[in-house]
Design brief:
The complex is a heterodimer of chains A (116) and B (114). With 116 residues, chain A is mostly beta strands. Helices cover 0% and strands 48% of the residues of chain A. In chain A, the strands form 2 sheets. In chain A, strands 2, 4, 5, 6, 9, 10 and 11 form a 7-stranded mixed sheet that branches. The model of chain A has no long low-confidence stretch (mean pLDDT 92). Classes of the chains: A mainly beta (116), B mainly beta (114). Chains A and B meet through strand 4, strand 5, strand 9 and strand 10 of A and strand 4, strand 5, strand 9 and strand 10 of B.
Chain lengths: 116, 114
């Protein structure tokens, strides 16, 4: 199976610590998205990459959050000085080139972050 | 601006009964509309999408949805519920002039009773 892969699946961290998540998109998918999902809510857009370029960031992405996609392959999402409000499921998705808004996004299984 | 409203955060249906999940959207430009399903501790899986072709869209697992522009709705239905349909369902919208950014509704949790 060559779907979107996210690691780790679960992360428990103490408040104030830094955490980093990794997303490996489907091969040949040049678009990569990060979403955050809190309990009882739908996913909320965080940021979007086309190849290695980060083209849009949500206002939800505070200065403590940074995302990278070196070489247009895998992506990392880092949260510095974690807060309890950062506890959520972080979802990565990828989609193939072309098609604009019509293109289906394929989601990974997510990384569940718990800040204690 | 665009937004999605899903009516009913929880729906309980009997096995074999009709499943109806409601979704209304607002969009300043013609939208693309999607229904995703999420099983516990899993990512999202696409059920179906509306792409301005046929207004009645058929998806996987026997689900279908009808786009009604006059009502700004995209309700999801399945004629006969199965126990395996128990999951959370999300309606989402993207703009036709966008690069695939999705705006999701809050979701509807479906419980199927024997």
């Amino acid at each position: 199976d060559t779907g979107v892969s996210q690691n780790p699946r679960h992360k428990i961290t103490k408040r104030g610590q830094n955490v980093t998540f990794r997303c490996d998109p489907i091969s040949e998918h040049n678009r990569l998205y990060w979403y955050r999902q809190t309990l009882g809510q739908g996913p909320e857009f965080l940021t979007y990459f086309q190849n290695e370029a980060q083209l849009e960031k949500s206002r939800l992405l505070s200065d403590r959050f940074s995302a990278e996609r070196p070489k247009g392959s895998f992506s990392t999402l880092e949260i510095q000085r974690t807060e309890q409000g950062d506890s959520a499921m972080y979802l990565c998705a990828s989609s193939p080139p072309g098609g604009g808004g019509i293109t289906e996004a394929f989601f990974g299984q997510g990384t569940r972050l718990t800040v204690v | 601006a665009q937004s999605v409203t899903q009516l009913g955060s929880h729906v309980s249906v009997s096995e074999g009964a009709l499943v109806l999940l409601r979704c209304n959207y607002s969009s300043s430009v013609p939208p693309y509309l999607f229904w995703y399903v999420q099983y516990p501790n899993q990512g999202l899986q696409l059920l179906l999408k509306y792409t301005s072709a046929a207004t009645l869209v058929k998806g996987i697992n026997g689900f279908e949805a009808e786009f009604k522009k006059s009502e700004t709705s995209f309700h999801l239905t399945k004629p006969s519920a199965h126990m395996s349909d128990a999951a959370e369902y999300f309606c989402a919208v993207s703009r036709t002039d966008s690069w695939g950014k999705l705006q999701f509704g809050a979701g509807t949790q479906v419980v199927v009773t024997p």
